[in-house]
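User: Good morning. I'm curious how adenosine-5'-diphosphate would be positioned relative to this chain. Could you predict the structure with it bound?
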Amino acid sequence: MKILLGCIADDFTGATDLANTLVKAGMRTVQLLGVPRGTLDVPEADAVIVALKSRSNPAAEAVQMSLGALEWLRAAGARQFYFKYCSTFDSTDAGNIGPVADALLDALGADFTVFNPAFPTNKRTVYKGYLFVGDELLSESGMRHHPLTPMTDPSLVRVLQRQTTHKVGVMQYGTLVQGAPAVREAFDTLRAAGVRHVVLDSITDEHLFTLGEACADLQLITGGSGMAMGLPANFVRAGLMRSGQSMPLPHVTGPTAVLAGSCSTATQGQVAHMKRDHPTFELDPLAMAAGRDVAMEALTWAESRLSEKPILIYSTATPEQVAQVQQQLGREHAGTLVEHTLGRIAQGLVQRGVRRLVVAGGETSGAVVGALGVEGLTIGPEIDPGVPWTFGIGQPPLALALKSGNFGGPDFFTRAFRMQPRG
Ligand code: ADP
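Assistant: Good morning! Here's the predicted structure, ligand included:
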């Protein structure tokens, strides 16, 4: 296989978001869940995304995982590389965005890359290096309460500078609006001044297309899914790919369920919306910690309800509830307990015939697809910006919608099922 764009994503829903962007821009795209073990028959594609679950791991571990993915993608012939993280730049002072980008640059023998989490369609914009979520600075948005990576500083330059020993700069709006040649010139100037990491301003999709064009020759690009919008056109312009490519997709029917492990503001709203007129089951992390088999309790509850409406099983809770649980169990232990339980529930649901599954939460999605043993996905129609239906490669046929916590409108869960996940 000879691929053009090799991508490494730090979580599973983020990978799906990126895949969705590339598919819409006409690239045949496959998402792999971890580095393939060799048994997976990877379909012919223009872009491959290796989805890792590395966002919240210790930095050294995230680096090793990312380098493993890079090695596989290089062996598959990738010409350019993309490191995908969240549009809210989810990370801590210890990493992992800076350390992973540094390690990838070193492995590629490169000395310059860009950072751009902007996703204007979902109201994530960067202005003068500050990240906005809607009308609020990142640090004033719900992200300040994130269970694993609370974001309390809106300056991406400062956030990134705490994660790397190399020089961080910013390429501002004023240059961006002058077009791709001006951006390239600014890159040269910054590079000459010893800057290795450049945060990019972006407010509209048009800016992202300009930046995509300006980054045609960079070996490594880093960003959210938006930053990838302008890249497929570079390959078409270079004569390496035809425009408007697509892949064949399966049609999946069967019982349906939602698993929500995200505690984001958007997911809280979506859970509340679905609770109004669907069967729901709430998971209690303290009961899990006390040794109760909460997964089995949920499955027993679900069993008789699967032939009816879509069901919802959730651990989603308010920041106050999460804080209380974390105080008793510790942040990591609470997260792992819930993720493990949701993974077991997903396994049990598929064993009981569920074929269409919506999962809310990045870490949660990673845990669920891991437990299901899904190794790769092809990408179907978009439900809401950044969230498509996807199809597991292999058996049994499974339609999966992996939703990043913050994404989707209030009726996302029910609308996903009203929309047939067909190719
Ligand atoms: P998001 O996409 O919103 O960031 P994630 O699934 O990535 O969602 O992260 C949510 C984290 O919070 C997971 O580790 C999950 O296990 C944990 N979690 C979920 N529910 C609870 C809860 N009730 N108490 C404490 N932690 C929770």
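The domain at 256-418 is CATH 3.40.980.20 (Molybdenum Cofactor Biosythetic Enzyme; Chain A). The longest helix spans residues 331-351.
Let me know if you'd like a different ligand tried.
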